[in-house]
Design brief:
41% of the residues lie in helices and 15% in strands. The strands form three sheets. Strands 2-8-7-6-5-3-4 form a seven-stranded mixed sheet, with helices on both faces. It has a four-stranded antiparallel sheet with strand order 9-10-13-12, with helices on one face. Strands 1-11 form a two-stranded parallel sheet. It has 376 residues and is of the alpha/beta class. The chain has 14 helices and 13 strands.
Amino acid sequence: MLAENVRTRFSALDVATTFLDAPGGTQVPDSVIDAIATYLRESNANLGGPFGNSRRSDALVARARLTAAAFLRCEPDEAFFGANMTTLNFALTRTVGRTLQEGDEILITTLDHDGNVSPWLELAHDLGLRVQLVRVHDDTTLDYDDLERKLGDRTRVVAFPVASNAVGTLTDVKRIVELAHGAGALAWADAVHYAPHGPIDVPDLGVDVLLCSPYKFFGPHLGVAFVRPALTERWRTYKVRPSDHPYETGTLPHELLAGFVAAVEYIESVGWQAIQEQEHALGEQFLEGLPERCRLYGLPTMDGRVPTFAFNVDGTAPRVVAERLAERDFAVWEGNYYAVEIMERLGLDEGAVRVGFVHYNTAAEVDRLLHALRDL
């Protein structure tokens, strides 16, 4: 019932296509589109001027900071914006790199999106650091014993995802944070894939750095990040001299901030409990009906995962499956989705088909997908 109610708020969904591509970016409600357009019509200006448009832009940026703080449960000066998660992460890794020395170690995980891998690999190349990979079990859950074994007195950062963008597996964030902090390392969380599926509370999680992307939670293309204030006080950040903000390097995309505010307001209007109940039901329906010829990679139930599923159809290449589904007006992904390590771990040279559900998807859409997979 929830999906039927919220879909009226998405003109983008009023088409023949069944959008099961949310892991690569969600559709946005009309309120987000309207907020972006309204800003450009009525408030478009740079900051700090004495005239109306500039003052309205000042107010919007302040509101966006309050909204980011509410979304992440942090203080307004602890959250900030950038082009996207990966761009922010390259900047932040360079910043922490100023505190590192040759021989220091970074831990990453097999579940990570490359946006939380390549920035560390490049930093290691520049500074002579060591990067170690924390393994996963066959069911794609993180091997916490392996993480604990690899922590050492030279470990400086443990980088990890809150949820895998490829196979949907959740990590035990508090356990990772406890292990990292016990070794004197920073806990560096990629929450991009988790953000549309549940609330984020950075003080409760205890992370030092967290990044996410509004285009994954019904908003525009943008990056949002949190850094623990004690770190900001110590770090020398990359910024222009007149800027008061330690991490934002230029004029923000104000119209996208307006869309971000509207996206968070949309989520608040629906409520996390309703969102999670809908997604859980859709995920269970998909798992129960998945044809035998489809091989699932990852957890076989909704326990410990979000409703993102990677699978292959026996005898048919992932690209062919995606193309045949597209011919039937299903939007799904295939490939590795920048999750290089988990695809190598699973031996998937061609990647896999990926479908993902969010709360605007319906039981009827899942049923049609299962019928189409059986027809293949």
